[in-house]
Amino acid sequence: MGMSLSRLTEKTNIWPWLLLAPLGIYMLIFFVVPLADVAIMSFTEPRVSLANYERVLTGALYQRVFVNTFLTAAFVTLCCLAVGYPLAYLMAHSKPRTAMLILLLVTMSFWTSFLVRTYSWMVLLGNNGPLIAFLQMIGIDQPPQLLFTRFSSTLAMVHILAPYMIMNVYSVMKKIDPVLIRSAESLGARGWSLFRHVYLPLTAPGIANGSVLVFVICLGFYVTPVLLGSPREQMIAGLIGHQIDEFLAFGMGSAMAMVLLVVTLIILTIYHRRFGLDKLWG
Amino acid sequence: MNLFMRWTGILVVIFIAAPLVIVVPMSFSSANSLQFPPPGYWLGYYRAYFTNPDWLIPTWNSILIATATTILTMILVVPATFALVRHKFRGKSFADLMMLMPLAVPHIVMAVGYYSYLGDLGLVHSHLGVILAHTCLSVPIAFLVLSANLKGFDRNLERAAQSLGASPTKTFMHITLPILRPGLIISALFAFVQSFDETVVAIFISGRDAATLPRKMFDSIRQEADPVIAVISTLLFFLVLIGIAAPYFVSALRSRAPKPSRPAGAH
């Protein structure tokens, strides 16, 4: 009998390292080093000191931006849940054909460049757009400014990130055994109590997955808040970009980037300990 | 509860769908501002897109960069995925985790790093610089797709080939590769889309010469909201529609049902 491929490779333990080496070296040079560069610059630009962190962590402007970013991310996550949960429910409890059409729509949204979706919201919320026209039609003579406000950027982010929530919740709902629901009903659970004590706990893993993803992506969101948000209420990524673009303040930009990175990694590490990171994107 | 969820669900469908389809009528609008509904219709902005080098060059840059990124990503990821899925070795779980790291780091953080690092290497504002950066960001996505495929691979097929006398190389070429082909194609497609759509890093490092389409769109939306953006959005919309509908059609023809999904990337 010929030696099998698997046995050959299991015996000589150098194989996996040879296969991994090109990627490992590449990622070291073009991922780890640039990232380390950010960490180094945060301490050395313009001179070696902790001054950047001192300013970032104690300056009133920066603190306000951090708090604003955190609250926005939390709010967007909640909205995504409020929007995504009913839709996932609708998908999980309608005919296969309807479910597939909705899934198609959500997948479409998911794959559509978020620049395109950001642009669409500019059209929808613009001063010559349909929403303002509608408000005027129902008798509001001086409709409020919708575009370039916290409202417009939040709404667009919810729209852009909702598919992450929907897909995660839906994939859990789909797997719920209907027998569980029926037996809960036979034991007297109805309406709200059935939902609260049976359905909600069963879908919790999907909610956790979706929420972590949406929250983490939203924390570092650059494009949509910059294009649609109010210039006076920036989020952290926008402020980092501003420091680099306008002031070439690499030290300050890097220090803020490091804070953003550390917060993101803490959240993902907690998640990883409990569930495993590979499940988040799988 | 039930009825409430249903109606909310229907409203959400409208909320998701409206921004996706609104770009189509906008692209035929004759207005030069963001007016909706459009005052009139014409094809002028399509002509503007297909004749204006300011738009065509970034489009070409994006195609070029995404293609090169895909090739480089696959060359690096395919052997690594085999190593990680088929071998047990010390440090494997660490390596697994490292493969996902680029997904965990916000793109704005990488943008700061690349701006400075590629600047030092003299690669900022060059195609090569963007390709090198995009490859790092595409690696985890290509890996996730490919490793899921490789895990589902029935190795008895390889054993059968070898017991019939095929050499390891022959087994790989005639059994492993053909069976894995759909997974490889999807993995490469995801790498391509990741690069083609990537905006934040491209904004900071692609400069004028290597400006990608997303960078050009970002600048244009920020400055003047050129109506050509609606044209590009519509073209991208239909590309995505075709890309998603095609597997459904093929599967309807073969009466099987694979589901297109996409692992999430950090925006």
UniProtKB/TrEMBL annotation, chain A:
Keywords, sorted A to Z: Cell membrane, Membrane, Transmembrane, Transmembrane helix, Transport
Classification via InterPro entries: MetI-like (IPR000515), MetI-like_sf (IPR035906)
Pfam family, one: BPD_transp_1
Major localisation: membrane
ABC transmembrane type-1 domain: residues covered: 66-271
Subcellular location: Cell membrane
The keyword Cell membrane is annotated on this UniProt entry: yes
Membrane spanning stretches: 20-44, 65-92, 98-116, 146-166, 206-228, 248-271
Membrane topology: Multi-pass membrane protein
BP GO annotations: transmembrane transport
Assigned GO CC terms: plasma membrane
Keyword S-adenosyl-L-methionine among UniProt keywords: no
Family to which the UniProt record says this protein belongs: Belongs to the binding-protein-dependent transport system permease family. CysTW subfamily.
The protein's name: Putative spermidine/putrescine transport system permease protein
From TrEMBL, chain B:
TM segment ranges: 7-28, 63-85, 97-117, 129-150, 171-193, 228-250
Keywords per UniProt: Cell inner membrane, Cell membrane, Membrane, Transmembrane, Transmembrane helix, Transport
Subcellular location: Cell inner membrane; Cell membrane
Highest taxon listed in the record's lineage: Bacteria
Entry annotated with the keyword Zinc: no
Gene3D superfamilies given in the database record: MetI-like
GO cellular component, one term: plasma membrane
Protein name, as recorded: Putative spermidine/putrescine transport system permease protein
Organism whose genome encodes this protein: Xaviernesmea oryzae
Organism lineage string: Bacteria, Pseudomonadati, Pseudomonadota, Alphaproteobacteria, Hyphomicrobiales
